Here is the input.
Amino acid sequence: MGLLAAAGLAFGPIGTGGATWTAVPKVSEGAVHLEEWDFVAHGPVVLRGQWEFYPSVFLDPTEARTLDKAQRNFINAPALWNTFGTQNGAMGAYGYGTYRLVAHIKDTSLKYGLKIPDFATSYKAFVNGQEIASNGFPGTSRAQTRPEWRPLAATFRTGSPEMEILVHVANFSHIKGGMWEPISIGTAEGILRQRDLAVALSVFVFGSLFVMGLHHLAIFAMQRDDLPSLFLGLFCAVISLRALITGEVFLATLIPNLDFELLAKLEYGSGCLAMAAFLAFMVALFPRDFPRPLLIFVYVSTLCAVLVIGATHLKDYALLLRPFQIILAAVFIYGFIVVVKRAYQRQADACWLLAGSFVLMGTVLNDIAYANRIHGASGLSNTVPFGLLAFVLSQSLIIAQRFSLALRTSENLAAELESKVYQRTQELEEANMHLQLAATKDVLTRLNNRYNLYRTIEQENLAYEKRDADSIVYSLIYLDLDHFKQFNDGFGHDIGDFILQQFADVLLEAVGEEENVYRVGGDEFIILLPGHSREAAWNLAMTIVEMLKKRRFPLDILEQALGLSIAGHRQITCSIGIASYIPGTTFDLHKMLTAADKDMLAAKDSQKHQIMEYER
Here is the structure.
């Protein structure tokens, strides 16, 4: 509740209507006047100031007493009694005594309450002779005293306008003694609300740090090279534990019979481990900025401190508090300087880390200052969990920033990869097309090649063997150019290739279907004619012959397109063999091809420029 209490009480509450500031009553010479204070409107009052104090005496709370000013001793509270002067000198840390205060109130019908923090290290509180709260058992010796740390909220009624508050305090366990935290008075509802808010805030800080710690440990579990996440997770876990064992000491509510020594060991030990975890986190982030001797010194000191805390009693290991605080402050200041340097060098994420480190270092130094009573603002005590919460939030912002950057990078890479995959797919498809063309097409004429012809023959044989033999109509034409050699030898292979390309165009023009025309080698061509009768095949062959004759193939095109002198060269004609399927017989395109080939050769051997027909 420290930060919230400070916010509400630092300047005093606002009066009714918000027009004026109402001065907060203070304890003076063992009395506080609350007659004019409106608890309902302004809330509880912190009983800070001069309390009566009677060392080495437990005043009887049931006795009526009237003490002269000369008989009374005064001590500032909250404060330590270590330096309080007695007849035998400074009181020291160990001893016992009674704090006394008379509160003057106006409304005796209200139900009141006291918010009592932990004292060093046991107490009983009385109001007008009635015991309302206790921590442990305050005795007059170490053997009779049982220490306990557990903040309480006590409610009560009083019928008197004068309220005597007596607090018996005893300490034989800690190097600091007395009422080191202030008591607050208010209505029962206001005090309980203050207690509930403090507990809720403590649990919220614990839960937030614990979940964040698990989050970073989970990140390390998935990415074992991410050491900063490991040590930050451990740091969060340790400080979340401290949120339960300091302030409202909620762990004592969860475990009512929690041993005092164990609680103290947890508090001091967790402080040491928190320092080591923080240093390890900073080293994981900036390994080159922390000298090895410093690391060895801090880690060895932490180990020794933890061992001493585990093996000795509070009155012994509490002596380590001040040197440990000096080391702790040095570590955090050094870490902060490293972050400032990195931020100055514009290292990525250093600005967020700088902001979080600044808040964390401020809370660490503030708590050290309060623990040593350099300042007495109890509302600003136990602020390290809040500082760590801000620090971890800065880390969460860094992680979110990195995640966003990684997501954008991933999206860009995915888009780039998709583009490359698309490009590679296009290239592969193009390459496959080229390969397919190379495998099935004649490179020169772009007609189907011999390989494609034989593949088609196999497919046609399989398809047609399932059909009714009497219904099949199929023909093919085998063509071979006549007088082609004279052009190939006389003008060169380039002209010969040109003539073959032009002849392929003639065939495509005549047939009209590219997939049925094949070049099977040299100047030989095949036309498959599924569904064409013998007469249809004969007519197509005659059409081709007439086209060649009409165009004086290739004489006219050589003269017109290439300007070649073709005097003395004969027109190209072709010898043609035709084979047609005879219905009712076994369909075999291979045999039809062989028959057409024989007819073509027969035509070539006779007079050339002939059409020979074979009916299967």
In short: Residues 3-19 have pLDDT under 50 and may be disordered.
